[in-house]
Amino acid sequence: MLYSAKKNPTDLETASTTAPAPAKLIFAPTGGSADPTKAVQYLQGELSRASLSASPLTQFHAWFAAAHAANVYQPETVTLATASLPSGAVSARVVFLKELDERGFVVYSNWDTSRKAADVASNPRAALTFWWREVERQVRVEGAVERLSSAESQVYYDTRARGSRIGAWASPQSKVLEGRKELEERVKGVEERFEGVEKIPVPDFWGGVRIVPEAVEFWQGRESRLHDRFRYEKEGEEWRVERLSP
To answer: Where does the Pyridoxine 5'-phosphate oxidase dimerisation C-terminal domain lie (predicted)?
Structure first.
């Protein structure tokens, strides 16, 4: 004969209330607040619909210039997020914005062996997030990804330090290395290949991609986390602007 053990519901309740809580390595950091029990308050500015430009690209350019004027450290620093299909796995990394034009935001990288290259090959969409601490502002961009031509990429590539141009050829980005020596040997081989050559051609696997915006959000920090948020969304050739709840 089989017997099943039944637990009294109160036993379960007791177990759940007496089990030790998992230890927290970090809990509610205050980010430099003068009061160690309270989070930093954002008090530097505000954002209204009337102050926004008709185009998010024009608005971004104004905010980027303001970030420079406020001595924001490297305001071109941006988190680039991509996702692979069909798994849906998301990855993100910090890169530099290198260009802004009437079509969108341009970043440069290896588009053959990197994780982002694999993601974009299966899902040609990306998101960007800029965070400018000194002015308590954030900008979020979402849109489609398109490759720049080799001729377009060459223009920027020519501005890079020679070592960076060599490095673009030498590094199979994100591939496993046996050790630092392997990378150094690859660099040495490329240096020998282009010895005496000043105009190094941009590799066909390396270059720019443009994130063509379909949605852009401007975020201004406010007190009590009641931030000002405005999102631009593309509708045909026009942009619709809406205020979002914080």
So the answer is: 206-246
